[in-house]
Specification:
The protein has about 190 residues and is an all-alpha fold. It is built from 10 helices and no strands. The longest helix has 25 residues, at about 140-165.
């Protein structure tokens, strides 16, 4: 099976998991839902965990593309772009995938071998696009890099808080405040 076929198989698994949920499905159940065998999934992804890590990578890729699209959408107000992106992240329909993201994040903290691709991209894949947004706002590259890392960490923290508490109103307000603070000019 070529890389394209592997990608198509991953897409089928992702489509199934979006409908069925990410919960505690076995590899066999995921395979059946995606119209393949569990052996094919093991061959291409190594394990259930490896497959789920690849699914999270796909979700993350979609989220980065959405952020880039929002930023390029013509709205010059970075707080408005941040607000729109937060609304997308805070959508309850994404909660199962986000729980899976944090589950894999926690496993990556323990250096599980199957999380290696996740560890390599979970920060690095986001920093470039977010740094570029801060450079476009007029920040020098070093400051853009710091703000990108802070933005990434704070947004993930807000999202984790939302998933745990469900306090949407307060966290929407906190995300709004953070967007105002992180995009404000630096005061020396």
């Amino acid at each position: 099976m070529t890389g394209d076929a592997r990608a198509a198989l991953l897409d089928r698994c992702f489509a199934f998991l979006k409908q069925a949920g990410f919960g505690q499905l076995s590899l066999r159940e995921i395979a059946a839902g995606a119209g393949t065998s569990h052996r094919m999934l093991i061959y291409h992804f190594g394990s259930r965990e490896g497959l789920l890590a690849e699914v999270v990578r796909l979700v993350e890729t979609e989220q980065r593309a959405a952020l880039v699209s929002l930023a390029a959408g013509g709205d010059d107000d970075p707080v408005a772009v941040s607000r729109q992106f937060w609304q997308r992240l805070a959508d309850p329909a994404l909660a199962p995938a986000e729980r899976l993201f944090f589950e894999i994040y926690a496993q990556a903290l323990y250096d599980r071998s199957w999380t290696e691709p996740f560890r390599a991209s979970v920060i690095a894949a986001w920093t470039g696009p977010v740094e570029e947004m801060f450079v476009q706002l007029g920040f020098d590259p070093a400051e853009a890099r710091r703000r990108a890392r802070l933005g990434l960490a704070a947004t993930r923290g807000l999202l984790l808080d939302l998933l745990i508490t469900g306090d949407r109103e307060l966290l929407d307000a906190a995300a709004e405040l953070f967007a105002q603070l992180i995009t404000a000019p630096r005061v020396d």
